[in-house]
Amino acid sequence: MYSTVSFFLQVGRYFDMPNRKTNLITELRAGTVTFLTMAYIISVNANIISETGGPCGLPDCSSPGPKCTLPGTTDMGYNRCVDEVRKDLVTGTIVSSMVACFIMGVGGNLPIALAPSMGLNAYFTYNVVGVNGTGNVSYKTALTAIFIEGWIFIILSVTGVRGKLIALLPRTLSLSMSAGIGLFLAFIGLQGGQGIGVVADDEATLVTLGGCPFDAQYQTVLQTDPTGMAPALNSTAYYCDGQKMHSATTWLGISGLIIMCVLMSRGFKGSVIVGILFVTFIAWIPGHAASWLGTKSELIGGVGQTGAARMSYFKKVVAVPSLSKTGAQLDFGGLRQGNAWLALITFLYVDFFDTTGTLFSMANFVGTYLPGFVNEKKVFPRQLYAYCSDGLGIIVGSLCGTSPVTCYIESATGIREGGRTGITALMACFWFFIALWFTPLLASIPVYATGPALILVGALMMINVVKIDWADVNKAVPAFLTIAIMPFTYSIAYGVIAGVISYIIAQLCKFILDKAEAKWMGFFGKAKRTNYEGKDITLQPGANLAALNDSAFVVNPDDIDPGLAKSVPLPADLPEEVTSAHRLDIGDDLPKPSMVPQEDFSRRL
Region labeled Disordered — which residues (predicted)? Predict the structure, then answer.
């Protein structure tokens, strides 16, 4: 008994559970929620990457010829090989996710799960290798590029480059990154491919209101069955014949969202997992309009299976893992191609901004519940191990035949559920291990069961927008671009890049104009300008400032431009001895009404 208690006490101390105000049950529940919201990656990633054909080629064709491996081929031998690749990629996805989550949990002690990136797997398939290997880089060479990228990631982490770059990130951008990821999460949860289907593709406006029943959909883009043995299946791009928001699956997903919100508003712990399980169990009942399984199931774009096929797979319950086709398929000889290095560089910079931005934003999200978790230097506990975990995950993923591994924004659902330590990541690791053997069950969780969780957590992550200084256009525009670009380009990396570049341009222009203005005022004796709650205050030439204390200055009202004096009322909280003057406060922690100028007010005046 003593040894058991001692063991749990040591575990609690190792994971810093007392200081992070959590307990084992909460961590296990949070890890389960995180896994459930990202379990879709198990089958989706395998479906996407298998379209490359993997290592399959002419020798696998039943009737060898130059056309037997082309997209849309009906060659039995080649398609049989691709089907085996798809099954191996399920195993590869799980193994790489499991290893990365374990390292993050034990080393990084963060409630963050990792898995192959949804954006990079599409880039890997459609831009690098190509469908059935029709791209400029072979499947094996692309995996080799990813393998090298993983080692570069580790070097950048160990040398502190990633941490230093995050430390240089302005507070405005770090706040907007979290909000942008929240909006991105909600956008994913609203779509049909990975959510409840409220948002659908539109050829004219790009997006439109969805929720259209399958029998009222007229597909505008056909998605073929990757095996080539079945007619074209539906995609998420369709024209709806006047029945928008009539889909039973959409309304079942909305019901799950309502359940989560109501339970959360009442302080119920486990509200997210209850909502997911509620929708899942109803969707598993065959024979009704919202079924995920069975012949009457509506087809959901992006999954690549009919309801009957999903039911057949679900009934298997157990699957034997294998990596016979995709394991250790590296080809260093292919790196002689320039296209291979171009792919490596692209993987590196996109993955760098994507993973680093997500990791820091998730740590920041933990900090909303644990003040001080991320200090003023943007450093959080064990960050070196956390930064190394995705690099090791990338290496393992390449050896398993899959695209780069990254931190998942779905981790925010577990953090909202109470996850504060690496035990949450270890619980996700445990469920991935179970999925290794019970993939048919866990891969059958419908997207409209996990979509509501993404929407809810996305809404909660938007809290950071209130901390952004929207009155300062030099900060507001970069923050807005960071938030908007993420969902609109479907990329966290592009949002971070847009924010950083626009911030640098804005600050550079401000610096140049400030210097020019200072020289102009010094030469002509013009008025000085500062800012009070978004309004310019113009001081007469020769205005004198006297220090009131460490955070405030006093300026004579006569020195304020008469034309603007009315917009600058005298604060009521001034001491008697300075009632004839205006106080200009430095900072934002003093009581209102106060006159808050820009951060560098004391230096500029």
Answer: 585-605
Residues 24 and 126 in one domain: yes
Percent helix, percent strand, percent coil in the chain, to nearest 5: 55, 10, 35
Number of domains composing the chain: 2
Same domain, 460 and 557: no
Domain match, 545 and 454 both: no
Q: Of 468, 485, 512, at which residue does a domain stop?
A: 468
Could you give the CA distance from residue 347 to residue 344 in angstroms, rounded to a whole number? 5
The closest alpha carbon to 595, from 546, 561, 552, belongs to: 552
Distances (CA, A) of 203 to 151, 208, 237, 274, 377: 41, 9, 8, 37, 46
d(CA 526, CA 521): 4
3-state secondary structure of 492: helix
C-alpha–C-alpha distance, residues 550 and 553, integer Å:
8
Specify whether the backbone of 162 is left (phi greater than 0), alpha (psi in -120 to 50) or beta: alpha
The verdict on 453 and 547 lying in the same domain is no
Query: Residues 104, 52: contact at Cβ < 8 Å?
Result: no
Residues 460 and 579 in one domain: no
- Are 110 and 180 in a shared domain? yes
Place of tokens 């190792």: 14
Backbone dihedral region of 131: left (phi > 0), alpha (psi from -120 to 50 degrees) or beta?
beta
Q: Are 98 and 383 in contact (CB under 8 A)?
A: no
Q: Quick check: 355 and 411 in contact, CB under 8 A? A: no
User: Is residue 13 one of the residues assigned to a domain?
Assistant: yes
Residue 429's alpha-carbon distances to 25, 94, 113, 422, in angstroms, are: 16, 9, 8, 10
Examine the domain organization and report whether 453 and 588 are in the same domain: no
* pTM summary value: 0.66
- Dist CA 178 CA 372 (whole Å): 17
3-state DSSP of 338-379: HHHHHHHHHHHHHHHHHHHHHHHHHHHHHHHHCCCCCCCCCC
- The answer to the question of residue 501 being in a domain is no
Element (H, E) at 202: strand 199-202
Distance of CA 502 to CAs 85, 188, 361, 496, 506, Å?
43, 26, 19, 10, 6
Residues in the chain, total: 605
For 308-314, the CB contacts below 8 A with 24+ separation are: 310/444, 311/286, 313/440, 313/443, 313/444, 314/284, 314/440, 314/441, 314/444
Tens digit of pLDDT for each residue in 103-133?
A: 999 988 999 999 987 767 777 877 778 777 7
Residue 516 belongs to a domain: no
Question: How confident is the model at residue 254, as a pLDDT?
Answer: 93
Q: Of 468, 491, 515, which closes a domain? A: 468
Helix (H, G, I), strand (E, B) or coil at 549: strand
Question: Using CA atoms, how far apart are residues 526 and 490, in angstroms rounded to an integer?
Answer: 48
Given a contact cutoff of 8 angstroms between Cβ atoms, the answer to whether 529 and 522 are in contact is no
pLDDT digits (tens, 9 = 90+) for 41-88: 787 777 778 878 888 877 777 776 767 767 666 667 777 787 788 788
Asked whether residue 533 is domain-assigned, the answer is: yes
177 is in which domain, residue-wise? 2-468
Q: Which residues make beta-bridge pairs with 233?
A: 223
pLDDT at 214: 74
